[in-house]
Amino acid sequence: MADYDFDVLVIGAGPGGYVAAIRAAQLGLKTACAESRETLGGTCLNVGCIPSKALLHASELFEEAASGKLAKLGIKTEAVLDLDAMHGSRKDAVKGLTGGIEYLFKKNKVEWLKGRAAFTGADSVEVGGRTVRAKNIVIATGSSVTPLPGVTIDQTVVVDSTGALELPKVPEHLVVIGGGVIGLELGSVWKRLGAKVTVVEFLDQLLPGMDAEVRKEAAKIFKKQGLELRLGTKVTGVTVADGRATLTVEPAAGGAAETLTADAVLVAIGRRSNTEGLALEKAGLSTNPKGQIAVDHDFATGVPGIWAIGDVTPGPMLAHKAEDEGIAVAENIAGLTGIVNHDVIPGVVYTMPEIAGVGLTEELARERGAVKVGKFPMLANSRAKTNHEPDGFVKVIADAETDRVLGVWIIASLAGTMIAQAAQAMEFGATSEDIAYTCHAHPTHSEAVKEAAMAVQGKPIHI
Ligand code: FAD
Ligand code: NAI
């Protein structure tokens, strides 16, 4: 240790980095975390998961009041939007949680090295004008918005997700480029607050990577909610004049171009790993063809003592994946066995209804062998029906021979919460019969998971 300033230096204080740092410190390792932002918590807490969920929640309540949904339940109210106050509440949520990480760093004696870190060697990094040496370095630098060639993000008319969280007024017409997670979540926010929203998606369906039936049903629900979907369409140019944008779009397969005008454009076509400025070459590291840092099962890079986790590495770009990798890498560094089961990482889209999945899609499962599929509609779930939340279904995919659950897909108001039981069941190697014979409390949305598992067995009760 004599030669080293730290046992562990983590670069980046997002959900991957801050969790790795805290866990390493808990395990008795002298730990520092370099972060260039003014606040800790990374993309997730500052400009991602947390502020987007604050607006999703608030806009859902506004819509329930404005659309007359509350009145139907006997709650009469006049809905008046105070966007400044809504933004204030979002900022408070971010401030509280980012401040909480700072408190946890102090509590666990993790030193925050403020500034942008760059390698100066395989065990040394320069940050904030200081060069530090660490026995282990964890790269957790996350990701940032993928730019669309030829389209300039000015954060006024043409915005990325960060700009879309902070729009000072509700746009009349918001065009979202990209029908993925960000486009649908933030598109939903501004739709509920009164904007016309058009989603332009290059592929012929929304939400790539999700189960095909779920993607189709989701598109149906979003259309019903009034989102205009332009699938199989590409944006070939965006010009801005006098505060308005003109977009040129054409069929992805080729064909006649047309123009759309909008007072706000959200570019949400994916995110890419942050490695620029890290001087990886000085540590003997390079990126894979996708610009990510490749790691092995233990999150070790090719250079001894250098590890990587989270969005900067291959795999889904999700906060909980980064967090679990943060814990695992710290445990591996401490000589324990840190494991993440990458086959069981749930994904949730926090629209209303929510859309969630874990494990294989039906398509992928069928490619691998014979399967049994059970489905149960939320319309037949007593709690969802009572709460006027009839949209969606639960789908359980099981191996035809062993009955082991291979994947679970849910569209339901509480899908993000319900998917946890599916992930846990899969982690324990459950069969669909195990779920079907587990007693579920009544009346809950989760009973739909049990009934979908019963449907795999061929014997649901309520349909
Ligand atoms: P990040 O959170 O990106 O953190 C990396 C940190 O490293 C940053 O703070 C950055 O400033 C810092 N950094 C980078 N380079 C350096 C350097 N050289 N020196 C010092 N510091 C550096 N995921 C979910 O699971 N659920 C959600 O609901 C969800 N919602 C999202 C909503 C939006 C709008 C966006 C954009 C993303 C959302 N995500 C969500 C994705 C989630 O935010 C990321 O997967 C997660 O933050 C990745 O964590 P990370 O620790 O790998 O990186
Ligand atoms: P995404 O990968 O989810 O979706 C991007 C979409 O843009 C795709 O459907 C793609 O086909 C489309 N696209 C690409 N190029 C296009 C073009 N030129 N024209 C039209 N469409 C085009 O990426 P998104 O929404 O930007 O999110 C980035 C990441 O952030 C995701 O990987 C996601 O995991 C994470 N995230 C997670 C959330 C959650 O867990 N709830 C919420 C928000 C983001």
Automatic annotation (TrEMBL):
The keyword Thylakoid does not apply. It is an enzyme of class 1 (oxidoreductase). InterPro entries: Class-I_Pyr_Nuc-Dis_Oxidored (IPR050151), FAD/NAD-bd_sf (IPR036188), FAD/NAD-binding_dom (IPR023753), FAD/NAD-linked_Rdtase_dimer_sf (IPR016156), Lipoamide_DH (IPR006258), Pyr_nuc-diS_OxRdtase (IPR001100), Pyr_nucl-diS_OxRdtase_dimer (IPR004099), Pyr_OxRdtase_I_AS (IPR012999). Residues 345-453 form the Pyridine nucleotide-disulphide oxidoreductase dimerisation domain. GO terms for molecular function: dihydrolipoyl dehydrogenase (NADH) activity. Coiled coil: none annotated. It catalyses: N(6)-[(R)-dihydrolipoyl]-L-lysyl-[protein] + NAD(+) = N(6)-[(R)-lipoyl]-L-lysyl-[protein] + NADH + H(+). Its EC number is 1.8.1.4. This is Dihydrolipoyl dehydrogenase.
